[in-house]
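Can't paste images in this forum, so I'm doing it all in text. The chain is below; anyone willing to post the predicted structure tokens underneath?
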Amino acid sequence: MPNFLEVSPGLLFWTLVNFGIFLILVARYAWKPLLQALEQREQRIAESLNYAEQARREAERLLQEAQEQLRVAQQEMQRLVREGKQQAEAFLREAAEQAEHIKRQKLEEAEREIHRQLERAYAQLYADVVNLVL
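Text version of the structure:
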């Protein structure tokens, strides 16, 4: 049974020769394509990183734009609510003033009617008293 832990000088020599031939073949035929493949991969990774960075920047820009639009919309909403409240208050004031004006007109008209009726009643009473006296 062979002992695999034992070092044989002949086996070592041929192993080194085979390894040397392998290195020469790899250096001559496979090293350049391997380096090119690695460089291409490195370039693709760099391009992907650049693209990802650009996409991140674009996303940040879009987020800032959206936040700005939201802020503007909120300000516009607050302005519209404020204007709506002011218009409602003005409308209520105007309606109250109109109601007060109408109430005053009705009261004045009622007072005039009461005075007319009182004058008629006094005139009728005076006429009745004169008729009774004569």
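The CA atoms of residues 86 and 105 lie 28 Å apart. Helices lie at 9-133.
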